[in-house]
Predict the structure of Enoyl-CoA hydratase/isomerase family protein.
Amino acid sequence: MTEMTGDVIAEVRGQVGFITLNRPKALNALSLGMVRDLMATLLAWQGDARVLAVAIRGSNKEGAFGAFCAGGDIRFLHQAGSTGNPQLEDFFTEEYALNHLIHHFGKPYIAFMDGIVMGGGMGISQGGSVRIVTERTKMAMPETAIGLFPDVGGGYFLSRCPGRVGEWLALTGDTIGAGDAIAFGLADGYMPSGQQAALWEQLGSERFADGAAVERLVASKFTAADAALEPHRAEIDRFFGLDSVGAIVAALEASDGVWAQAAAVTLRKRSPLMLHVVLEHIRRARGMDLAADLRMERDMVRHCFYLRPGQSETVEGIRALAVDKDHHPKWHPARIEDVAPEMVAPFFASPWPAHSHPLVALA
């Protein structure tokens, strides 16, 4: 059975449900329609005893694999955030509900995280029970570059990385490869990209006793991968464990290390306000379960667009990066040192009473 749902192709072969993200020109960036298709497909398969497991991949312009998902459709977010389109609210509510479903799916969910895996692509893979990376994997939560924060459950899964890796990834938006993704708890195993197609086909043709047998087959294909950033772990923990964004940047800039200097340059390009928000986000989320974190993120993303009318860091960041492409966002305030605590606190005040929160049903 194959179901064509525009940018999402869903099919059941044998005992496995297969999903292909099929929007290659946009690097499979998630639209509201794609979120709805994914949700409907997964809910149907969750209740279907014939489907023992789910496998998900992206496509590129040449065919399957090569690009998983570059995130949410930021051009839509800019347009909707600039014009007051109510679908902006629907997108985040439904995307976060989808992220929660994947984490609590109850069946093996195998994510082929080949190529670009960023932002919303992390949201539809991090909840998986088997997260496969390849030599082509480029993984990041780069939201501070567009005046946003690592959402889609990013507070939850980044804060659970070892040491202060979560703070570093969230603040800088730096990209990591397969070995580091495994070392940091953001992937489960490495597979050469050329072997993915054969495994994908095998999953649909083999008979399995249960879902665990599906996972065992996948895990049997894993090989070792080097973690390039392991030498910097002590630096990451030392700098990104400091109390504030100002302290982190000052310490990085005072260092004579090449890695530290590069990190400082990156942070100076990010939204100063959102850096402060993000540090608070990660540290709050470390003590939360996934549902609580997603509710907090839903509050935060509402504020990113509407807390400061006409002065949204997110709308401005997307404009500079993806719309006008001048790469010179005008952040307010412009300097990390000029962000006051009273600018940060409102992002963590829910605009809804608890009983009316859009994600009240998540448990």
